[in-house]
Design goal:
Blueprint lengths: L11 H13 L2 E5 L2 E6 L2 H8 L4 H7 L17 H4 L3
Antiparallel strand pairs: 1-2
Amino acid sequence: MERVWQLTEEDSQFTEVVDEALEHGPQVVAKNGHEVAVVISMQEYRRMKQRQSLGEFFRLSPLAGLEELDLERDQTPLETRIEF
């Protein structure tokens, strides 16, 4: 179950981390020198939780639109592609 933490004026460092996440994107949180968590905006969190089709995933990919990337499906019937 998700826990909702309330920010108060006293939590100035955490407030700063949240503000940075809202303005500049994900913020990494470290504990004892090890990266253990990431603070992201609610908008980013909801976007990440949405399910999307494989086609939509490829359309939204940073690689979409590259001319040298061939994502065309081979339409040749499978029987003619298999060599015995």
